[in-house]
Design a protein that fits this description.
Keywords: DNA-binding, Transcription, Transcription regulation. This protein has 303 residues and is an alpha+beta fold. It is built from ten helices and eight strands.
């Protein structure tokens, strides 16, 4: 599984340049035609997260992999993706047409907590199979976006925001597509790789003010949009260890590194690793290493 794809990565891979206004703090939006970026000679979409939201309207047979789900679409589909869940799609037909738009959270902040809509919630299947009429209706919204993004109208971004919100509400009135069974071993491998990548991302700790964001098995399961029992079964089948064991082992590894290679005090290290009280960190460390954090640090200082 690849790491997160940023907006900069997207533009470098698709257009070979990064727009100058990408980081102006006002939010970003753009819209594209699918046929310019899909087809038999285009690079496949990698299975990874994106650091931006994306809405895709596509005509053509496709297979979508989303979290631990697979959905096969025979003709027309509308797909919503967000920074929380990794995905990729495999075109089955050589000919693919439609539109897709990308935007950041800041772009829609004026519309409140749009992230709370059901299509962006963990466990949802935000993919919709469309009839010919539904496709035509949705296509008209994208055509308006495509027309406005190239116009000189001073308030075009406000108009585009309303079109995006209308697109979201249009989708929420539809019935999500059903997921299809996938090979159990393949799904378990994918979930294990996703968990490992997500776990590793918790430890980009460069300051005592930073802290693990995901600490418990439930945190990881929610972030991966799967049930905690399912996550535990997958990890157990591949690694032979529970979710809690894998998290604890990685925390212990990071604790050793921080004790050995930083001058942060014990409380700061415990805080970074998700322990609310220093005593909880000391107990955890001593149980697994048979030394207190202080004794471990002193031992390594004299090596």
């Amino acid at each position: 599984m690849n790491g997160n794809e940023s907006l900069e990565d997207f533009y470098r891979s698709k257009l070979n340049h990064v727009p100058e206004n990408l980081k102006q703090g006002i939010g970003h939006f753009n819209v594209f035609k699918v046929e310019d970026y899909a087809g038999p000679h285009k690079n496949p979409v990698p299975y990874s997260r994106r650091d931006y939201y994306k809405i895709t309207l596509i005509k053509g047979r496709n297979r979508y992999h989303y979290a631990d789900k697979t959905v096969e679409i025979k003709s027309r589909s509308l797909l919503f993706t967000n920074p929380m869940i990794p995905y990729n799609w495999e075109p089955i037909d050589d000919e693919q047409t439609g539109y897709f738009c990308i935007f950041t959270q800041d772009f829609l902040n004026s519309f409140g907590s749009f992230k709370e809509y059901p299509i962006f919630q963990p466990g949802a299947t935000p993919l919709y199979e469309l009839s010919a009429d539904e496709f035509k209706q949705t296509e008209s919204l994208f055509e308006q976006m495509f027309s406005e993004i190239g116009s000189s109208y001073a308030f075009k971004l406000d108009l585009i925001r309303t079109l995006v919100i209308q697109l979201i509400h249009t989708a929420m009135k539809l019935q999500p597509a059903d997921s299809t069974p996938v090979n159990i071993q393949h799904a378990n491998d994918r979930i294990t790789a996703l968990f490992a990548e997500l776990l590793e991302r918790q430890f980009l700790i460069e300051s005592p003010l930073q802290r693990m964001k995901l600490r418990s098995p439930a945190d990881f399961a929610l972030n991966m949009s799967i049930h905690i029992n399912h996550l535990n079964r997958c990890l157990k089948s591949i690694t032979g260890k529970t979710t809690s064991q894998l998290i604890a082992e990685r925390i212990l590894q990071e604790a050793r590194v921080l004790l050995k290679h930083t001058d942060w005090n014990i409380s700061q290290i415990g805080y970074c690793l998700g322990f609310d009280e220093p005593s909880h960190f000391i107990t955890f460390f001593r149980k697994n290493v048979q030394l207190t954090p202080k004794a471990f640090r002193n031992t390594n200082e004299h090596e």
